[in-house]
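INPUT
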Amino acid sequence: MTPAALDPTDPEGAIKATVDRVSNWGRWGDDDVRGTMNYLDADVRRAAAGLVRTGESFSLSQRFDGDGPQKGWRRRTNPVHTMLDTGTDAVAGIQGFPHGIGGADDVIAMPLQCSTQWDGLGHIFDRGRAWNGRPADQVVTSLGDGVTGIETVAEVIAGRGVLLDVGRAVGEDGELPDGFAITEEHLRATIAAQGPSSEIRRGDIVLVRTGQLTRVRRGLAAGDGWGDYAGGAAPGLSFTTADWLHGSEIAAIATDTWGFEVRPNEFDVAFQPLHQVAIPHIGLFLGEMWDLDALAEACASDGRYDVWLTAAPLPITGAVGSPVNPIAVR
Amino acid sequence: MTPAALDPTDPEGAIKATVDRVSNWGRWGDDDVRGTMNYLDADVRRAAAGLVRTGESFSLSQRFDGDGPQKGWRRRTNPVHTMLDTGTDAVAGIQGFPHGIGGADDVIAMPLQCSTQWDGLGHIFDRGRAWNGRPADQVVTSLGDGVTGIETVAEVIAGRGVLLDVGRAVGEDGELPDGFAITEEHLRATIAAQGPSSEIRRGDIVLVRTGQLTRVRRGLAAGDGWGDYAGGAAPGLSFTTADWLHGSEIAAIATDTWGFEVRPNEFDVAFQPLHQVAIPHIGLFLGEMWDLDALAEACASDGRYDVWLTAAPLPITGAVGSPVNPIAVR
Amino acid sequence: MTPAALDPTDPEGAIKATVDRVSNWGRWGDDDVRGTMNYLDADVRRAAAGLVRTGESFSLSQRFDGDGPQKGWRRRTNPVHTMLDTGTDAVAGIQGFPHGIGGADDVIAMPLQCSTQWDGLGHIFDRGRAWNGRPADQVVTSLGDGVTGIETVAEVIAGRGVLLDVGRAVGEDGELPDGFAITEEHLRATIAAQGPSSEIRRGDIVLVRTGQLTRVRRGLAAGDGWGDYAGGAAPGLSFTTADWLHGSEIAAIATDTWGFEVRPNEFDVAFQPLHQVAIPHIGLFLGEMWDLDALAEACASDGRYDVWLTAAPLPITGAVGSPVNPIAVR
Amino acid sequence: MTPAALDPTDPEGAIKATVDRVSNWGRWGDDDVRGTMNYLDADVRRAAAGLVRTGESFSLSQRFDGDGPQKGWRRRTNPVHTMLDTGTDAVAGIQGFPHGIGGADDVIAMPLQCSTQWDGLGHIFDRGRAWNGRPADQVVTSLGDGVTGIETVAEVIAGRGVLLDVGRAVGEDGELPDGFAITEEHLRATIAAQGPSSEIRRGDIVLVRTGQLTRVRRGLAAGDGWGDYAGGAAPGLSFTTADWLHGSEIAAIATDTWGFEVRPNEFDVAFQPLHQVAIPHIGLFLGEMWDLDALAEACASDGRYDVWLTAAPLPITGAVGSPVNPIAVR
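OUTPUT
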């Protein structure tokens, strides 16, 4: 299916037809809570460890910062980090500790989706159903996700990461324009351009660089602020990649954009339709707002695009997502 | 120096004398912000990646949970995780999204030291001085740690982890009693008992299991609650291990206890005196409240105690510590 | 109805029968969002202003403090108050402001029900129905209370307050024991003992002192902590007072206890059954954890038990309750 | 002193000279923690209660809302209100309560200065000194304001409020333009225009309406957003009113603007210089972001500008300010 084949007036029809092709419900049993993370097993990890050659490490995380991109939409704010104790207090002599010790502690309040993060399986529903077909209201209540909370994959997400630098391979000057829909053809073209280290295998964590973050950073440096990085127009995956996401048997996929899929979405009236297929039906973990730029430079310099990647969510009981600092080593 | 050699009435004297022997101030230049993380370089990582044999992975993190051990001391509370959107809302049809998509988002408010965490270099001061000799009031203010914030080591902490299961090697039934001071001799005895995979090398991340968490978990299972896990009596490193911590040139050390060092502390009137040496003077990163039990079982089963370990802090700008989900792969 | 008449095995039956007698659904129209606050009108206020004679003022609020009574049950924690800027920072010269100005700002994170508070009309439901018969899932979602949010009574709650010091009138040494169920007879006996200033009129805000807080404070002073003040056994209103609460046409009622009604509740298996009648059916505003001791002393000293009372909730959009600092002037 | 007399290049000089004239340090003893709230005594309250004639009540509070004016400057964000339990959960049958009761609870995280608020005496310092001459670092630390925390005036702030509708009396169409400095002459002209009910007396709470909020609200209604209401240009009190603020012996003063004083400030390089005099030296309580529009309409309609006003801060231990819902009754 190509974007041209999408009927922009009928997201419901496209979603239903796609779901019929790509659903993984029941694939790992009725009790499954891990979805495509089932692909990421010890064998995958053992093989991936061999990718470490120089030992260089890269953080794929943006900063968790009060000056971040969030604008309060749906109450997604930037983190508020405050201190419980400080060095100024210690020097002022007010801490009351013995033998000259002083200390600083801190507190944070933040949406779990405020910066670099994983979407867990409880993050998105399709017509009232969560991953594996469960009724959404029996999965995620005000008490959190009692079934597929992010803690259920606490130890899993370490394996082979593959950078697909679509911005560099397909875009101009290394960047895709906002609104650019990345199709399966673009993904294949990128793999072809990058060479064999980019071949996608079962259990992989795919990292798609669009270059949007690079562009937004230039704006920040120029004093323009974040613009609409958090929710506005952006390059991203086409709805039509659902079949590839399913058939490739990847464990997860992450982008350098706020919302993973192309925005505006490819239907006249729509909101994140690829999420609606990918999370509750494919059981796929999505990473958003990852910073792939430094890694992309390194990969381009020597043509090796696969890395050992650890992207461990905080095991917050019942969370539908998690902030994460993914570490790539190559 | 042995615990017997400590004068319990003179923590100031012991601290000063120890600092004279172990200070790393200036070792990596006046501008250094990474302390012992300087030991953890690409070479260390490259070698450590070879430790992955089966691909088994272990999360060394406790849950971030409202029912955690914190009791509010110094305003350290358990995390409060709340939902911005839920599955019950989605099913109730009140979310207003098109084409049947529904979603759940969440928020957390927590001290950065509430559960499994890293102490950053701005966490502890000695007589008004922070790491590398900087005046503490020019490092950590209400705005956070403007110099050694945890984000400065965002990409570093992946390398060789070595479990020293002191509880198993030295304790009874795998556990050290509360108040047990682990000395250098105990560390060496553990290494000897465990065999060559436990040899400590420059740049290592040392994981000390005391067994206290195992014991506390039994209490939890029996309905006794957390007791005083968060701040009460505990086994832990003796103040006298400062020289070993310095001389071993390790990058970091973590324990399964709240406070790393033995409690009650080994002086008549004291509060975490080993912190006062280790963090501002050695520049050592300390991990606390790590869950080492599952890894310890695996290590004991085949006698391999070294692992590939990634323990990436969230790069919260200016934070003096960070929650972390450390992942060991072996 | 007396407590003796309650069948402890049948809370459902008692609730249904009581609801049939006391429901105010529709009384103020289908669109009503204020319940019994409709009684508190300008006429009531005008008359009540005449109660001010000496001009003495009393805060009926407990402190909002990290050392408060909450223990985390249902994620009700004590407030966490942190600073964004401090005097120590100002003196350390790190704030960067001109002409010698320095400042301090602060932040709070707290459950709205953590200390002295109002229960709003969205706080409790009966078999899926909120105040005035609305389906609860169309009133209070993750977005808050979209219909009866506490902001809808932002300007209303100023009028006549009447202290019923049941602890003094009925108890021993001014206190009722935990588990003591205050019946209509006890309320009438208290009014009779206190004299005509205690007569209850339409639109009144009734303040019921049990003396439990006085007792808990003694425990705090003795180092015993809060005990089970937040949710444990307590004196409080009997379920059988529902008819009096309805027939008296009061605007609101508050107690010095955590939970307004007697605990343990008067049925074998129950949770706050009087709430289930009072809030969704009578439309009554309940105040909890009020501090009535200082006012009680003053009232006892001169026999005047009615005051001018302002108890203004913070108009937090969509809140189902609010912290409040009620001010009595007499 | 008039604005013309101010040397715009010398805020330090102007501040020092003004402080020499208006300081109240020591006026109420060395231990004083209430500043001008000392003026608001029982006599003032007793007299003010007589102002209630119709019993109409007005909330002078803006909503505490996630869509508020804050933009994150100095980490002042809008409140984040989340639910611990909801009606959708109750209807979904997942709450686990007996006999059909369901409930909703909520949580808030907010800066204390995010919306309608009081500045407490610990909010501003002058050259390292807080109210009454205390060293700021011995008053406000990371632990909060240990001396003049807002809880120290928990019961005080009920008395006579006087609306000075400067926007209506002096402005065009009821509004002063941004940057308009309100001088003592403007205050006197407003009093004269409004008549004898506006006469200012010792212990009064003065309410200055500039009309800026009215203007901003039109913008909001037109879809323009809040603009720079939180910190941008605004009408407000001239620095030169310091003498009037002192000599009038008022207890407090509040405006409908973010920052009380005119912005931009009246010096070339300055930040809130009138705060620097008013809070630490006069000991004056400042109210900001109050909503005076509805009250102003009522006052204009019958020419009575004085009201019974209760503006009770939440007694948050150690807070340097507090959100407040002021209630005027007339």
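end of record. Chain B touches chain D at residues 80, 82-84, 86, 88-89, 91-92, 94, 107, 109, 142 (CB under 8 Å).
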